[in-house]
Amino acid sequence: MIRIANGQGFWGDSLEAPLEQIRRGPIDYLTLDYLAEVTMSILQKQKSRDPRTGYARDFVDMIARGAPDIASRGIKIVANAGGVNPEACREAVAKALNRHGIKIGVVAGDDILQRLEDLTSRGVELKNLDTGEPLSTILPRVQSANVYFGGEPIAFTLAQGAQIVITGRTTDTGLVLGPMMYEFGWKDDDWDRLAAGTVAGHTVECGAQCTGGNCQVDWRSIPDLADIGYPIIEAEPDGTFVITKHEGTGGRVSVASIKEQLLYEMGDPHTYITPDCIADFTTIHLEPAGENRVRFSGIHGRPATDMYKVSISYSAGFKATGMLMYSWPDAYAKARAADQILRARLDRLGLRFDSIHTEFGGANACHGPLAGEPPRDIAEIMLRVGVRSPDRAQVERFTKEIAPLALNGPPTVTGLGSGRPKVEEIVAYWPALLPKSEAWPEISVEES
Amino acid sequence: MARVKLLRIAHARSGDKGDTANVGLIALKPEYYPVLVKEVTAERVQEHFTGICFGRVERFELPNLGALNFLLHESLDGGGTLSLKADAQGKTYSAALLRMEIDIPDELLSKDPVHG
């Protein structure tokens, strides 16, 4: 049995969780997910300004703090912290470890930004999976393009003796499946076991969201969320596994908390596609296996497809969101009036937007029309108006029409503390498929 | 028959893929699952999310988990970074589905509320 921990559910998750996973009990592997779809474009911009950047700096800081434990206990670490510059990440990690003898492996080759012209000119359309449009329609606006590799390149890197594996774009599930393939010698066509590892990876990929975080069932009774334990997989060679957390930590691992996470971001549950296999989530059998322990078994998989998923980011215009807080009495009526006044002024200025969107926080920002009318004596309402346009100047002009409402609109309004709203560049996401024959993981292992 | 909100017999979690939101709906007890299958159809969910979901609704069954998964297409104002919604990722749509009222045989209803 091996213990695989998750210490990071997304870019921006708890800085302490990975260290707690290392320090508060036994683990063999620590896996960390640092990349969101938009992260790659931010990192690509950083790298274009400074070629030594373009990776997740948080990861390097974590390694520096955890170095004594990582070295003395031989904990293996797998992270997609490499972003668009895994080699620079390796150098920084080697420096942070400040000791020799630890082998650091890198999985690169996922970055196809420089190859897009060539690919499209050869007829690889990279059509948008949602809309069917060919990439050529937005090619000049592309900011990053990365193939999602799976667990297999990670397993290969571990087999070459790496204790720390840094990848670029990798599926979240691959971070967990890779160590299982390596440790248990699973073959790349052992579809049921690959599917089992994939399900394990999906379960822990959002960190504490499977250990009682964001859990609806009996949420008040979930113990000590302030000290919530992140998930640990106790994996067996036969593909069965238990999800648990370190003893003495808060949160709760229950069949209910696990089921919620299994359904998170789920499409067709029969056909969960990764580069490694297709996992069938309708075959998962769950059972309680003691306090804060849930056992998984029975998982089936099918052969992988011959395509990689590609994540492309591109510049898609500008947006800004303004907010104003209206108090009792008639808070909702005042906020609605202010929205009408604002829209009339935007009209009068001749501004045109692709979208203007109004929400009333406290009344219907979450559930829209399903929330019904708020009570007449509601204490306060947050008016929130957003606009989107390809033209930065129009969005900029909008941001200057919010503050005046404090003096020249409906009464008892506040909340302007942070000044004018900021104009944000929209970096949108373009999902596509690429034949596997068009991309290859580039693996290297070096001693630090 | 009793008329209850789904909140009484189910829990849920929602997330996003582009402009599509997914809502996983899970029976709080095994005996509630057939009720969910019968009552919470794709058509009813589509109607329930009027004004939020502008595309079609797909439903998938997971009897092994006592759960249904719904895909609500065109529900997130473009989705991801394009969206102007506070809840651009549909994180609270799980609770929005639990507002739906359905009919359930009296004898199936538990006395104690599970949601504390």
What attributes does this structure have?
heterodimer; A: alpha+beta; Alpha-Beta Plaits; 2 domains; six-stranded antiparallel beta sheet; 12 helices; 19 strands; 25% strand; B: alpha+beta; two-stranded antiparallel sheet; 16% helix; elongated
Largest interface: pair, residues per side: A-B, 52 and 46 residues
Strand content of chain B: 25-35%
Number of self-contained structural domains of chain A: 2
**What is the averaged pLDDT score of chain A?**
96
β-strand amount of chain A: 15-25%
From the alpha-carbon coordinates, what is the Rg of chain A to the nearest angstrom?
24 Å
Tally the helices of chain A: what do you get? 12
Gyration radius over CA of chain B: 14 Å
Poorly predicted runs of chain A = none
Describe this structure in words.
- The complex is a heterodimer of chains A (448) and B (116).
- Chain A has 448 residues and is an alpha+beta fold.
- Chain A folds into two domains: 2-110 and 148-305, no CATH class; 314-430, 2-Layer Sandwich (Alpha-Beta Plaits), CATH 3.30.70.
- Chain A has helices at 17-23, 39-49, 57-73, 86-97, 116-121, 152-159, 172-184, 191-204, 255-262, 331-348, 392-399, 405-408; strands at 2-6, 29-32, 76-79, 103-108, 142-147, 164-167, 232-235, 241-244, 272-273, 278-280, 285-288, 294-297, 300-302, 307-327, 355-361, 380-389, 413-414, 424-435, 442-447.
- A ten-stranded mixed sheet of chain A has the order 11-12-8-7-1-2-3-6-4-19, sandwiched between helices. In chain A, strands 5, 14, 15, 16, 17 and 18 form a six-stranded antiparallel sheet that branches.
- In chain A, α1 links the parallel β1 and β2.
- The longest helix of chain A has 18 residues, at 331-348.
- Chain A is globular.
- Chain B contains three helices and six strands; from the N terminus they run βββααββαβ.
- Chain B has helices spanning 33-39, 42-48, 93-97, and strands at 2-5, 10-17, 20-27, 57-62, 67-72, 101-104.
- Chain B has 116 residues and is of the alpha+beta class.
- Chain B has one domain: Alpha-Beta Plaits (2-Layer Sandwich), CATH 3.30.70.
- The model of chain B has no long low-confidence stretch (mean pLDDT 94).
- In chain B, the strands form two sheets. A four-stranded antiparallel sheet of chain B has the order 2-3-5-4.
- The chains are: A alpha+beta (448), B alpha+beta (116).
- At the A-B interface, α9, β14, β15, β16 and β18 of A face β2, β3, β4, β5 and α3 of B.
